[in-house]
């Protein structure tokens, strides 16, 4: 039935009544979730989002890349913002590329913050469709395609980012578009150069939104040379050349901002990362690309297999591998530890992430501001099923499809494992997000064919999924009620049970395929799918809780603080409306004492109100300026007793 479908043309596809009903139901659910997450008070989740709001506002309202200058106050220096740097003209620019500002500006003009939520929601719909289309084109099976889209949508952390401001889903949609075009460009034994050029352009355009998108040049390049078009050396060159205009645009933007004509830069290097950190990777990438251009995989692969079949060559290879292990064992163990940490258990984290927010709670468990953070498989335990695709790839089956998905998934995983980057303020491994669609496809490709092997299989799989979802939810609720101090292991380790259960079932199925192992694999996969759904429901709910609090804070202070004021704080996330509503924010960094003092002096001289966040920020400002700071509010609610102000309090500056 499914094998008769022709995915080269979608025009002949006629959806059934049940499919139409499912699409309508999905539209209602998607719209309801969007309204729930973006509705007032739809605050921000993370400081990165405040920066994206700032650059969208600057582009939409002033047509500028610069976020802030001196706010029109005589003698005031350019006011620093979080995650930003001083540009060549002395003004403050976002460290992030300006592509987001250009794309988001119309949405911001249309609906403000809600418009920015809408941008990602629309891109999310495109991403879902592209996951289905990519899976259909790779595996020629509509059951796999629909299951992949369903898993991606409802059983990963996709929805948490689809209804958000930071541009993960925008970038994912662009990368999936590039992946879809790359697949279409090498179908039926023919190469479509224009599709390859557009695919390269989409990846380059995505790099203008998130710089890590440049990583995805590698999987398409490798796939073309080794699998899709090994005899065509022009195809990968066309693909790379397609991105040149957008990389040129990125270099021009960075020259305007920082005076650095490079397509990829965050401005001045930090103590945590410098250009030298990535030089070895860049050199390896260039050498690897050159080698792939020289080697013809059609001839090299059989020759290599023949050579390895000889005992002498096999022994020589084994000795070489052993020597490499001896010389590089520390690096190998470090990478293995990093992989375990980010994939299986974030509690093993021992890195020094810049501005790290992973701190131990009273029981010694690492938390993110008191919230549990999950490793990759703690969010999506069913991804273990992708091992079936790996086994098939090693056996020479579904090489075109499996290699494409694994290459795309490996790009972000390999890069961010290099430094044990956990993604900062997030409840999950957001830096691995670009791997999620492709691992969803691989998991669906392992599960969907088995659902047709037995009439009872779909029902059993669905029941196992429901049991996994409800079981995780009720078990977590019961244990959290009894042992609230152990919220971190309860929240993160229970999904890990599903991970390792599925791992055992998958290995059993791969090494001993029979009816019993197939049933066990499907049941374990169903439980893991349900556990993933429950795990990400928790993330979605916690994200809304966080956004709601930030929204309440923002609404209160946007009413209380007079326009034209200066606010010195690290709380941009909770003061978004102020930053785009006529109040100047200053993010004080260590070493900026002179800048802070100059800003305070200029605003004070201009008769403006000045508010300083209490505690360590107040101490920093007091030491920098020599001013005495006093309470800024008469009788503020406890939750909003945030600020002090220079004494004596200026008329009209006392907060309610």
How would you characterize the overall build of this protein?
The protein has 656 residues and is mostly helical. The protein has a domain at 2-8 and 15-25 and 107-547. 61% of the residues lie in helices and 5% in strands. It has 23 helices and ten strands. Strand 6, helix 21 (576-579) and strand 7 (584-586) form a beta-alpha-beta unit. The longest helix has 46 residues, at 515-560. Residues 1-14 have low confidence and may be disordered.
Distance between the termini: 70 Å
Give the CA-based shape. Answer: globular
Rounded mean pLDDT score: 89
Main pleated sheet: 5 strands, mixed
Task: Give the neighbour order of strands across the main sheet.
Answer: 7-6-8-10-9
Helical percentage: 55-70%
Count of strand segments:
10
Kindly estimate the percentage of residues that lie in beta strands according to DSSP.
Answer: under 5%
Label the structural class: mainly alpha
Question: What is the number of helices?
Answer: 23
Q: Extract low-pLDDT stretches.
A: 1-14
What is the gyration radius calculated from CA atoms? 27 Å
Layout of helices and strands:
Blueprint: H1 17-38, H2 47-62, E1 66-68, E2 84-86, E3 92-94, H3 99-139, H4 142-154, H5 158-162, H6 168-185, H7 193-207, H8 217-228, H9 234-242, H10 244-258, H11 275-294, H12 297-308, H13 311-343, E4 358-360, E5 366-368, H14 376-379, H15 386-394, H16 399-417, H17 436-451, H18 457-482, H19 487-511, H20 515-560, E6 566-568, H21 576-579, E7 584-586, H22 593-605, E8 610-613, H23 616-625, E9 629-631, E10 643-646
């Amino acid at each position: 039935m499914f094998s008769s479908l022709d995915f080269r043309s979608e025009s002949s596809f006629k959806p059934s009544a049940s499919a139409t009903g499912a699409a309508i139901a999905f539209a209602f659910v998607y719209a309801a979730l969007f309204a729930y997450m973006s509705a007032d008070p739809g605050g921000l989740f993370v400081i990165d989002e405040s920066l994206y709001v700032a650059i969208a506002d600057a582009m939409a309202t002033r047509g500028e890349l610069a976020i802030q200058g001196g706010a029109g106050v005589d003698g005031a220096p350019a006011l620093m913002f979080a995650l930003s740097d001083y540009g060549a003209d002395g003004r403050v620019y976002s460290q992030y590329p300006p592509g987001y500002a250009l794309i988001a500006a119309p949405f911001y003009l249309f609906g403000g913050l809600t418009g920015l939520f809408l941008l990602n929601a629309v891109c999310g719909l495109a991403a879902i469709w592209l996951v289905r289309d990519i899976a259909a084109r790779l595996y020629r099976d509509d059951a796999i395609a629909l299951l992949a889209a369903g898993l991606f949508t409802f059983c990963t952390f996709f929805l948490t980012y689809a209804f958000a401001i930071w541009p993960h889903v925008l970038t994912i949609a662009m990368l999936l578009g590039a992946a879809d075009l790359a697949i279409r460009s090498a179908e039926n034994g023919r190469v479509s150069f224009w599709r390859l050029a557009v695919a390269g352009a989409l990846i380059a355009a995505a790099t203008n939104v998130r710089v890590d998108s440049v990583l995805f040049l590698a999987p398409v390049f490798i796939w073309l040379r080794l699998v899709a078009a090994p005899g065509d050396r022009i195809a990968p060159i066309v693909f790379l050349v397609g991105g040149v205009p957008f990389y040129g645009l990125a270099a021009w933007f960075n020259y305007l901002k920082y005076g650095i004509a490079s397509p990829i830069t965050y401005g001045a290097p930090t103590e945590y990362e410098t250009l030298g950190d990535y030089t070895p990777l860049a050199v390896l990438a260039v050498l690897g690309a050159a080698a792939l251009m020289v080697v013809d995989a059609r001839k090299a692969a059989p020759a290599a297999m023949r050579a390895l079949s000889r005992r002498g060559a096999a022994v020589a290879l084994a000795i070489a591998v052993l020597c490499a292990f001896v010389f590089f064992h520390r690096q190998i163990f470090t990478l293995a530890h990093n992989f375990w940490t980010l994939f299986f258990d974030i509690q093993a984290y021992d890195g020094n992430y810049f501005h790290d927010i992973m701190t131990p709670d009273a029981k010694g468990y690492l938390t993110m501001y008191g919230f549990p953070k999950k490793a990759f498989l703690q969010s999506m335990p069913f991804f273990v099923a992708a091992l079936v695709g790996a086994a098939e790839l090693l056996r020479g089956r579904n090489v075109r499809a499996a290699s494409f998905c694994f290459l795309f998934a490996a790009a972000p995983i390999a890069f961010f494992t290099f430094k044990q980057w956990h993604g900062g303020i997030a409840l999950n491994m957001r830096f691995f997000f670009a791997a999620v669609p492709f691992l969803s496809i691989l998991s669906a490709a392992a599960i969907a064919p088995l659902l047709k092997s037995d009439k009872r299989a779909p029902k059993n799989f669905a029941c196992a999924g429901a049991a996994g979802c409800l079981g995780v939810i009720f078990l977590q609720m019961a244990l959290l009620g009894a042992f609230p101090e152990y919220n971190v292991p309860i929240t993160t380790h229970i999904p890990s049970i599903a991970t390792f259960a599925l791992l055992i079932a998958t290995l059993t199925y791969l090494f001993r395929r029979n009816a019993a192992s197939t049933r066990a694999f499907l049941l374990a996969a169903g439980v893991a799918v349900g556990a993933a759904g429950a795990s990400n429901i928790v993330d979605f709910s916690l994200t809304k809780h966080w956004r709601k609090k930030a929204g309440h804070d923002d609404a209160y202070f946007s009413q209380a603080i007079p326009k034209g004021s200066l606010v010195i704080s690290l709380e941009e996330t909770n003061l978004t409306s102020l930053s785009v509503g006529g109040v100047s924010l200053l993010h004080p960094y260590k070493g900026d004492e002179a800048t802070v003092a100059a800003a305070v002096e200029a605003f004070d001289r201009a008769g403006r109100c000045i508010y300083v966040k209490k505690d360590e920020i107040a101490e920093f400002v007091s030491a920098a300026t020599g001013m005495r700071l006093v309470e800024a509010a008469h009788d503020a609610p406890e939750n909003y007793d945030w600020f002090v102000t220079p004494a004596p309090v200026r008329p009209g500056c006392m907060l309610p």
